[in-house]
Amino acid sequence: MLLEGLETLYVLAQEGTMGKTGSRLYISQSAVSKRIANLEARLGKKLIEPQGRNIQLTAEAKELLTQAAPELVTLKGLLFDHQQMTDDTLLHIACSETVLAAYLGPFLADYLQKDSGLSFRTHHTPMILEKVRAGDAILGICAGQLPSIADLKITELCQESYVLVYPTQINEHQTPQLLTIDLHNPANRYLEPILLANGYKILMQMDSYFAVAQLGLSGVAPALVPKGLVDAMRIPVSAVHAFPLNLTRPISLCYRSRSIQRERIQNLYQDLVDHFQYYA
Questions:
Q1: Cα dihedral 86/89/264/3 (nearest 10)
Q2: Do 137 and 131 touch, CB atoms closer than 8 A?
Q3: Pick from 35, 112, 164, 268: CA 20 to 30 A from residue 275's CA?
Q4: What is the mean pLDDT of residues 114-142?
Q5: CA dist., res. 16 & res. 26, Å (int)
């Protein structure tokens, strides 16, 4: 019960509302409230308080999560490693939205014919890593530069090139302002110093590559996007331009060492590696 309460408080800190927390944990809003109330009773402390339509954590709750959150993620991962798994167990895979859209449609259509128990959900790379560490996802398919994490293994699948999207010809002698993905995201942070060192200016940063590409197509400014997205969005060839720098992003698989020893997960892992050999 204590672990459930800590997990619920941890998710509530990220989501901000009881409803969103319940949706993420697959429990009712009243169950979220009950878990938090039980944790407060156990600790003898007030952990949450209303803030308009949202919930905010008290100072005591923030201090608790600062100390407990890393151990909570590690413990959940260890429990997952020892969880019984059958051929009918639903396997959750956390995936980059652009990688899923650009590369995995036909793969999934085929793979689900032999293993229908897969559930893909899209997240940004930091959340993918966290979900795999915690055992909430059996595999993560990430895009961007990954940190070294002690309890995760990383397999690079390919390097994806960047291109510019803009409806008219770009002046080669003028270094343009660019539209980019959010460069504060740790997985994308490596791009900013490269761009700035080569004289590029960042006009806007977006949370979604689809938004970046759409604004580029509309003529707002050249949009820096991964090449796979161009194909997924069926962007006209006339609006796609080579980027002068040899700029790429890695696409990688992340997983727990013990998880990959399970036959179903190993089969999926190997088929994904084989699938991306075409793009390597």
A1: -100
A2: yes
A3: 164
A4: 92
A5: 16
